[in-house]
Design a protein that fits this description.
heterodimer, A: mainly alpha, B: mainly alpha, 5 helices
Chain lengths: ~500, ~150
């Protein structure tokens, strides 16, 4: 009952005119950013974050804006996947497998509308999950002391290494680079300057906005130099524009199953929408067996990844809100946004800032409806955005990014630092280091060190405190499991190869 | 190959940072850990990771492509010029220039790029400075604006 009251209070916040306006704007921008190949939710959130801050939006409004962009991106990614065979963001890779064949069969309209509904179902189920589980987890998480927090963050980083799969060492390295970047600046407990190289501009640490925009916008601009697929023609969304009842029933249970799976994957720290959509697609394909036409335009192959990626996007808000540990790269950026407002996400957020939390959750419901309404009739308009040429798009992204960074401190130094980080990010990406792990590390960096040092202050330097409580022991066990996963997978792959050789 | 090169450089970089971090000493100890243990721990882990990648770099799908590397360098130079000219020239002029330069770099034709650059400079200045209240440098135009 208590939850219901809070939810109503949240709707009260979310239906304020400014918040509704921001949700519509965010949903629109998110869809556009999502459908443009190369730009994903992290870029969208990163570009809008400094603007939201510079505009002086209150924290709940800023968060609603960013969440709407996040959801919108998960909706938008499917449009270019279906019409162009180019995933608009990483999570939409699986959508291309069945979406593009459908479009070639002249069923683009059906594919677009059905995937919009799948996205809607996914987000709705996951948002209900957030309402049910987030307060519970928050209550439980209040029992966390600094030692447990530290172990939780170690677990989050291990999760990245275990889930991202084929390159665990590079993923962990990226996370470590992020953690190390966060140590730059004055040490908060002792006042010692660390890695500032006697620069005044660095004494405050590297600003979050600069890191995000450098690593994601600038490096993205450099990446886009290589992919000049401007000559590609988008499929026309012709024929029937809406799916019929039979098609909906055919894929309904797929949507429900994939949404639940996506939600669970989203809640796990570190594992994001990309993994969720890939896993559900594979399992649906296996379940359908030979009766499915997966790969040649099966509606279930379209519904599964779309509902899963939206569900995991919503699910990843749970660890962010309740524990202050991001569930995905984008939520890492949102945590950074909250810290700009001096709000530390964590279990106490539910008690201290109910307006922010429940306003955000309520706005997810509203944002979803807005996105569904926006996405079915306006799909033609969005599809036309695909034809904006790079020579307009790239300068526009660059300029908005630069303004965002400049708005923080108004110094040239920040701009140069942003470019430097961007070049570094570009090199890392070329070498296959996942940047979302880096951003996660950067966000967790300060929290992690603070909690470690607080824990050790409590125990007067005795390391045993880190594994003394059952919670931390359990988390260590999970961490070890996560770190062992890539090794196990490698062993299994080897065992499969060996008999073939013999 | 490139991964190996990167790991080697990164290993050296970590070592250098560790030397720096060794000097972090608090005049008064407030907590048992102190300011240098945590960075050193991170650097040690990173060093271990670099060593691993140095020995087992794995397969890299990306290849260095000289023309595109050249274009990336040009792009970085254009961005750097933008950053450094941002304040002296002011937002409108520097934006028009970078809009043009990047447009041409991204296979646009010169004339439309020039037009779009100038338009972006003017429109975005209006948008940010007047509508969104983000202060931007006027630079050369400062003389024309009475304060």
């Amino acid at each position: 009952m208590e939850t219901l009251n809070f939810l109503l209070q949240g709707f009260d916040v979310a239906t304020r005119p400014i918040n509704l306006l921001v949700a519509v704007f965010g949903a629109f921008v998110g869809t556009v950013v999502g459908l443009l190949p190369g730009l994903g939710p992290i870029n969208g959130v990163a570009i809008l974050l400094p603007l939201a801050f510079a505009l002086g939006l209150p924290p709940e409004t800023a968060l609603i804006l960013l969440a709407a962009v996040y959801l919108g991106c998960e909706y938008g990614g499917r449009i270019s996947a279906i019409l162009l065979n180019v995933p608009g963001d990483a999570a939409a890779i699986m959508t291309t497998l069945d979406g593009y064949p459908l479009a070639r069969q002249g069923k683009a309209g059906i594919a677009l509308s059905l995937s919009a509904v799948s996205s809607f179902v996914g987000s709705m189920i996951a948002t209900c999950g957030v309402v049910l589980f987030a307060p519970l987890l928050a209550k439980w998480a209040v029992a966390f002391g600094p030692a447990e927090y530290f172990v939780l963050m170690v677990f989050a980083i291990a999760c990245l290494g275990g889930m991202v799969g084929d390159k665990p060492v590079k993923t962990l390295m990226a996370a470590l680079i992020g953690l190390a970047l966060a140590t730059v600046g004055v040490d908060s407990t002792t006042g010692v300057y660390r890695f500032t190289f006697d620069s005044v501009s660095l004494s405050d640490g590297i600003q979050f906005v600069i890191v995000v925009i450098g690593f994601f916008s600038v490096s993205e601009v450099l990446m886009m130099l290589e992919s000049t697929h401007s000559g590609q023609k988008a499929m026309k969304a012709s024929g029937r524009l809406l799916f019929n009842f039979k098609e909906f029933c055919f894929s309904f249970w797929t949507m429900v199953r994939s949404s639940l799976a996506g939600f669970v994957i989203g809640v796990l720290p570190g594992a994001g929408a990309t993994i969720a959509s890939a896993m559900t697609y594979m399992s649906e394909k296996r379940m359908a067996g030979s009766s499915g036409k997966f790969g040649d335009g099966d509606l279930r192959g379209l519904a599964a990844p779309e509902s899963a990626n939206n569900a995991s996007a919503c699910g990843s808000l749970i660890p962010m809100l309740t524990l202050g540990v991001p569930g995905s790269g984008t939520t890492a950026v949102m945590i950074g946004a909250l810290t700009l407002y001096n709000i530390t996400p964590g279990p106490l957020l539910f008690e201290q800032q109910p307006d922010v939390v429940w306003g955000l959750i309520a706005s997810l419901f509203i944002g979803n409806v807005i996105l569904l309404v926006m996405n079915i009739p306006l799909v033609g308009l969005f599809a036309r955005m695909l034809s904006v040429p790079n020579w307009i798009l790239v300068p526009a992204i660059t300029i908005v990014s630069v303004v965002g960074v400049y708005a923080v401190h108004s110094t040239t130094f920040d701009l140069v630092l942003m470019i430097g980080l961007g070049v570094f990010g570009y090199i890392l990406r070329k070498l296959d280091f996942p940047l979302s792990a880096l951003i996660l590390g950067f966000v967790l960096g300060e929290l992690m060190e603070d909690n470690l040092r607080r824990a050790l202050s409590i125990s007067a330097g005795d390391l045993n405190i880190l594994w003394s409580s059952p919670i931390s022991l359990g988390l260590w066990a999970l961490t070890v499991l996560m770190l062992a996963l890539p090794g196990l997978r490698w062993l299994r792959a080897r065992r499969k190869v060996l008999p073939a050789n013999a | 190959m490139y991964v190996r090169l990167f790991s080697a450089i990164w290993l050296l970089f970590c070592a250098w940072l560790a030397v720096l971090a060794w000097g972090f000493q608090a005049p008064f100890a407030y907590d048992p850990v102190g300011p240098r243990a945590y960075p050193l721990l991170l650097l040690a882990l990173m060093g271990a990771g670099s060593l691993w990648l140095l020995i087992k770099p794995g397969v890299l799908t990306q290849q260095l492509h000289v023309p595109s590397a050249l274009r990336a360098t040009l792009c970085v130079l254009a961005l750097l010029a933008y950053a450094l000219l941002f304040e002296p020239l002011g937002f409108i002029l520097s934006t028009a220039l970078v809009g043009f330069a990047l447009g041409v770099l991204f296979t646009g034709r010169p004339m439309p790029c020039a037009i779009s650059g100038v338009l972006m400079g003017l429109l975005l200045y209006g948008l940010f400075d007047y509508l969104l209240d983000v202060p931007l440098p006027l630079g050369l135009f400062e003389a024309f604006v009475e304060s």
